[in-house]
Amino acid sequence: MKTNLQQKLESYGQKYWNFEKIKRNGIHKIASYPAMMVAPMQHKLIEDIINMEGNISNIFDPFHGSGTTLVEGERFGLDLIGIDINPLANLITKVKLQGINKDTIYNCNEELFLNIKKYKEEGVEVHSFEKIEKWFRKDVIYDLSVIRKSIIEEKDKRNREYYWTCMCDLIRKYSNTRSSTFKLHIKEDGKIINMNNNVINDFINSVEANINSFESEKSNNTLLIQGDSLEEMIKMKPESIDFICTSPPYGDNGTTVTYGQFSILSLFWIDQIDLNISNDQLIKNFSSIDTLSLGGRINPNISKSELIPSVTLVNILKGISIDKQKKIKNFFNDYFNAICNMIRVLKSGHLMVLTLGNRRVDDKEIKLDEITKEFCINNGLELEAEFVRNISRKRMPTRVSHVNNLGPVQSMTAETVLILRKEGSKDE
Q1: Which residue of 14, 158, 317, 320 has the fewest CB atoms within a 10 Å radius of its CB?
Q2: Residues of the domain holding 147
Q3: Is residue 319 within 8 Å of residue 360, measured between CB atoms?
Q4: From CA 189, how far away is CA 198, in angstroms rounded?
Q5: How far does Cα 261 stand from its chain's mean position?
Q6: pLDDT, tens digit, for every residue of 193-223?
Q7: Is residue 415 part of a domain?
Q8: Is residue 357 part of a domain?
Q9: How far is CA 291 from CA 50, 228, 284, 285, 298, in A?
Q10: How many structural domains does the chain have?
Q11: Mean predicted lDDT score pLDDT of the chain
């Protein structure tokens, strides 16, 4: 028998949740990030659940990414708790939630632009990090150094953090890396040589245009943590969360969506004082974030023969090469650990919403939705509702890897949304 929530979600029609004609706008447009959630979808989902459930005062996203879910939760007056290991994701989300200092922003902009003009004409100490000249042309390095120096001199921290987010997209745009992938791959020489340098004008335009994206300041309580979700959730009190809404990683970042590689060039340019990085190892090299993220570290305690606690997963692994099985098992070891901690902090009788995608390994579908459903039901959750939506507009590569004799493997084109309820009586 269908639950009331399932009936409600289905009442909108089969294609409603695709949100095919929606484009990013407003606050969600101030900085790009891989695999961003669709804001109107999250808004509607949160709205329906709040209206049907009642007594929801806080929302928790343990993998907040660019902050879409938290921003939409804020619109309903909820207290916000978010965790992400990626310092760039944390900065972008922080800026979206805290906004700018509207009392000072226009004067700060004027001083910022004057400093940019001054340093451009008079000269500036050029910023440097390992392999910088591999990833940026010399003239681009100089102009980005001018902007960086000018931002650092801004005294208002909120406005300074806003300027860094405006700079992020330009760093990626004017780098020598290809835009067709989130991984760091060098462009063809001709494209690098012929690229027009409009770094400074683009930055100024971005700063001025994005100001209008910020709404009036909210009074929500916000706890935003830059750190490892597995470590940070352990510190949280059990049964302290009213509502969990998140999209956990679909696989280890190194072979799925390389959030770290996408972010690292920006992180090397941003002043470390404004990143508050919890672990210096995160920016040790170009792949550190992905390695330290969920499933990125090989766990020597997981043997080749050990069975993961999911019948569905065990059957899928049989068709995958031994070497790749180990990576998959390591990911699910971390993933199941994260799910268990999410269940622990969620209040009895309350809901957890998981947006999931099924990636492919050796051209075999890793059915994350079925595996997750099975694991959750075996660990004290009940399936309240679910639906599948197309993700044609989600910012992800359509082909993400190569398999011997098969060529490029198609990426996921759909997501499953699972809504699960923790067993026990709901607090009134």
Answers
A1: 14
A2: 105-213
A3: no
A4: 19
A5: 13
A6: 999 999 999 999 999 999 989 987 777 799 9
A7: yes
A8: yes
A9: 36, 12, 11, 10, 9
A10: 2
A11: 91
